[in-house]
Amino acid sequence: MVKKYYIITYGCQMNKSDSERIAVELKKIKYKPTSSISEADLIAVNMCSIRQSAVNRVYGLIQKFRKQKIKNPKLKTLLTGCILKKDLKKFKDYFDYILSIKTLPYWKNYFQEKTFLFYPNPRDEKFNNDFKAGYLKIKPTPLNNFSALIPISNGCDNFCSFCVVPYTRGAEFSRPSKNILKETKEFIKKGYKEIWLLGQNVNEYNDKQGTSNNKQKISFSKLLKLIDNIPGNFWIRFTSSNPKDFSNEMIKTMAISKKITPYLNLPIQSGNDKILKKMNRKYTIKDYKNLVKKIRKNFKEHREGLEKEIALSTDIIVGFPSETRKQFNDTVKIFKEIKFDMAYISKFSPRPETLAQKMKDDVSQKEKNRREKALTEMLKKIALKKNEKYINKTIEVLPTQFKNNFLIGKSRHYKTVKFKGRKELIGKFVKVKVTKAMAWGLNGKLI
């Protein structure tokens, strides 16, 4: 009898990339994918712990799994991904296997046991040295044939006071550039149109060995240049960046590249220096504004047409411990001044093991909701005005889905674009004339 698996993925693009590798390993041990959770013999949950709401989603699955096990007593459940120590103790009573993603090449051995828990401290040096590079050598099976997720680094050593990543992903390490370039070339040869380079902080990428042809150190900027020089018609995108590590060389590389798209997510987190210091962000508002000014200046100097203006998105946390209304208003001022194209706004919630958990969570939920709503309303107005500049302009779009006889995709500026077209155009670059602008996207007509 053929065994079937079903993967549930929560969280960032790195988790999605990990799930692509999980699928490969399950295939090696004769599991086949199923699109129905009720048909699965193995359910793998790849979880995220960045916010409590993400963890709660996993707890919400437990009752569903219990019902499935009544129907299929042989069903096994597996948990992996970003798991905090506090949750690990609770989840071990509800899952048959809890396995570190870094041990993925060895999962087949663990499946021989009825139950298995192998999730060492991600910051354990010996554990990291034994396992950190192995699982990323697995060739992924992407969920589509046009957008490739390529991890270039993993882990983080920044220890922002609100963030769990250093405690769930472990110490930062960079993949060998020769492996990244080989993987990228293979995807491009297969016709992939979009290359996403992933890392918790891509700016800190550092391959001390260099490529096989070049033994000099390869920085992120150098890596981008090497990928940009690969022949083919494709886009380069990356996430995520920390403003403290954004060098002048990096700015120029982005601006002069033909394949790096004119879009950047640059998390600011707060518009107030005192709050940034409490967040352990290691830059000031002045630093951030100067960085944005340099990035925009370089794009205006080196790009043409619509690409002279880069689309900027950011991440914001409202209601951080001790944040006063006056300090929040500094964030409002930054929104007005910088005019982000998009912002990912979240309300502070204390995360276990982080420094911020020890701080008094003294901003009420009602006030956090008010601040989130105020920023969202402001963002709507700014984003609409930004998007109106595209009306009657022809832009390049990569359609990614077909819904109700409409294609939906992303432009080079990472704008969501909706237009009438054939399903067969998914994954192919098309030209679209923009006919309407909304705060969160564009409508257009296929050229």
How would you describe this structure to a colleague?
This protein has 447 residues and is an alpha/beta fold. 33% of the residues lie in helices and 23% in strands. The protein has helices at 13-28, 52-59, 62-71, 85-91, 107-110, 125-131, 165-168, 177-189, 220-228, 248-256, 273-278, 285-302, 325-338, 365-387, and strands at residues 3-9, 31-33, 42-47, 76-81, 97-99, 116-118, 147-151, 153-154, 173-174, 194-198, 206-207, 218-219, 235-239, 263-265, 311-318, 342-347, 394-403, 406-411, 416-420, 430-438, 441-446. A six-stranded parallel beta sheet has the order 2-1-3-4-5-6, sandwiched between helices. A five-stranded mixed beta barrel has the order 17-18-19-21-20. It has a three-stranded parallel beta sheet with strand order 7-10-13, sandwiched between helices. The protein is globular. The model has no long low-confidence stretch (mean pLDDT 94).
Task: Put the structure in a nutshell.
The protein is α/β, with parallel strands linked by helices and about 450 residues long. Helices cover about 35% and strands about 25% of the residues. Strand 20 and strand 21 form a beta hairpin.
